[in-house]
Amino acid sequence: MQSVTPLTDGEFVQFQRFIHDAAGILLSDAKKPLVSGRLAKRLHQLQFASYGSYLQLIASGAAPEERQLAIDLLTTNETYFFREARHFEHLRSVLKARASGAPPFRVWSAACSTGEEPYSIAMVLADMLPAQGWEVLASDISARVLATARLAHYPMARAAHVPQDYLRRFCLKGIDVEEGTMLVSRALRECVEFAQINLNAARLPQVGRFDAIFLRNVLIYFDMETRRRVLQRVLECLRSGGHLYIGHAETLHDMGLALRSVAPAVYRKE
Fold this sequence. Notes:
There is one protein chain. The chain is of the alpha/beta class. It has two domains: 9-74, Chemotaxis Receptor Methyltransferase Cher, domain 1 (Orthogonal Bundle); 85-269, Rossmann fold (3-Layer(aba) Sandwich), CATH 3.40.50.150. It has helices at residues 9-23, 32-46, 51-59, 64-74, 85-96, 116-128, 143-151, 164-170, 186-189, 224-235, and strands spanning 105-109, 134-140, 153-155, 171-173, 181-184, 192-196, 210-215, 238-246, 259-263, 266-269. It has a seven-stranded mixed β-sheet, covered by helices on one side. Strand 4 (171-173) and strand 5 form a beta hairpin. Helix 5 runs parallel beside helix 6. It is globular and about 60 Å long. The termini are far apart.
């Protein structure tokens, strides 16, 4: 196997610029080993001797599929079912207060990763609303994680926080060769729509308006100006009175947005 020249500081700076321009993600200098490790296997597969050669390929525009793969490899995706449980408790309280006969309740999981978040949302909605009374859109910049999300097949360890009643109603436990895994039921899978969306694009696709948007644990990867632009685009899709959920490690302080804090990491659009 051809050896790969170690990632230089100059090449790392170019990768930082690449992922910032492509996805708005700010890679700190401490992420150099992460970039090197995540791309090394791909360079071996392509028989490239240096990271600079790979940079030329993805920056040239001649290989859009490879460019997308590089974005996939450099995007952090860490999640599990019912992460930050208080957000789902808040969502339940919002649903309880809805008037009967209201139009379908629409939720957007705007950085859905491998799908645990939108399926968690769907379980809550299916539990509390009639079958035709809700919709979930799940999106991510990464085609790789979206493929996993559509399969909806997970290690059972990811389901540690799923209520037992929901496990029985909405999930299938693997047996024999699939032991130790779970599959989200077909009925629930068919109610979640997936789409590849780059939140850092100059214009978002026409996705309609939502009653709730989950934008959790993604803003932390953006610089302040990118964060502001992403929020402005996303909030255009949130109905007045709708709720925005962000990660508990994130803040909207001094952003000047038409939002009111109603719970930890939960905001209501004025």
